[in-house]
Amino acid sequence: MVLVFAEATNGKFKKAAHEAITYGTKTAAAMGTECVALTIGQVENAGDLGRFGATKVYNVNSDATATFDSGVYAAAIAEAAKQLGAKVIVMIHDSTGKSVMGRVAARLDAGSAPGVNSVPTVSGGGLTVRKSVFSGKAFAEVEITSEYKVISVAGNSIPVEETGAAATVESLDLALPASRTKVLETQRATGRIPLPEAELVVSGGRGLKGPENWNVIEDLAEALGATTACSRPVADVDWRPHHEHVGQTGVAIRPNLYIAAGISGAIQHLAGVNNSKTIVVINKDPEAPFFKAADYGVVGDLFEVLPKLTEAVKAYKA
Ligand code: FAD
């Protein structure tokens, strides 16, 4: 059996949860078994996960799971896998998945593969998965041979497929450890789609000259329904919040469209964005290295180009 931890935020499932279920369903089909979903805490419409292939949805909801705690969540996932007899555990490769998967693997003495981007092939008792390595410059094929296998799926790498109908939801009673941390405050960083899941991203760099000029980035993002991002130096000097910083030391993204304005295209920046499906670069310097990685390039002043692009998007949508 394949068990997918379908993460929800404020009770609602993200697109990445549907991707993980799709991934789990395809993996289960390759193994000749079924895929079930696990939800933790209070969630809305959990049965809907059946539409993406989960044959059943299990929910763990107790005082211990009221707020996110990676130790408690990991215990819940590992115990659910043991109780249900699931040998493959799938989750989303986001901050929650990253903080939980190592603990789940340790509890189950499992081999793990973080950030995979293709459905595994099955050979005997092993699963071979593909993941990008060296900041997206190469792919590695990894065979997991342990009895339990823990996998996290990179965002936007598996197209969501609707294959089934709503599934039944069953509560799972598990003995969970008490939380050893206490959440004092939760702040939502932005009203927009979080960067790792965003399909459209508009990003600015030092070419913007200062935080007071970010309206040109915000306006285009607003018109497109995109999420905003930035280069590292911009976050380092507090022009933008750190959670917007993309690159080797920031968030790695794989949107369908990445528009970069006033960013030179240093290798450390490219490391986090070069998996984008289409890259558009706006830079006044025709020699900017980013143009080599771009699908479309505009040589020009971003303060002229971005407002025109925004007007064009608005006119197209009107
Ligand atoms: P710049 O390199 O200064 O480029 C600004 C660009 O704007 C120029 O190309 C210029 O031609 C253009 N421009 C200026 N005015 C205009 C205008 N009016 N219209 C159009 N274009 C204009 N960087 C990251 O982004 N992410 C990372 O994760 C990251 N990690 C790093 C890790 C390490 C260990 C190190 C050493 C560096 C890292 N960096 C990272 C920094 C990286 O090397 C670059 O310094 C950084 O990406 C440059 O940011 P930038 O492109 O915004 O600025």
From TrEMBL:
Record's keyword annotation contains Ion transport: no
Cited SUPFAM superfamilies? Adenine nucleotide alpha hydrolases-like, DHS-like NAD/FAD-binding domain
Q: Which Pfam families did the record assign?
A: ETF (PF01012), ETF_alpha (PF00766)
Which UniProt keywords are listed?
Answer: Electron transport, Transport
Q: Boundaries of each Electron transfer flavoprotein alpha/beta-subunit N-terminal domain copy? A: 2-188
Highest taxon in the source lineage: Bacteria
Q: Which family does it belong to?
A: Belongs to the ETF alpha-subunit/FixB family.
Name of the protein: Electron transfer flavoprotein alpha subunit
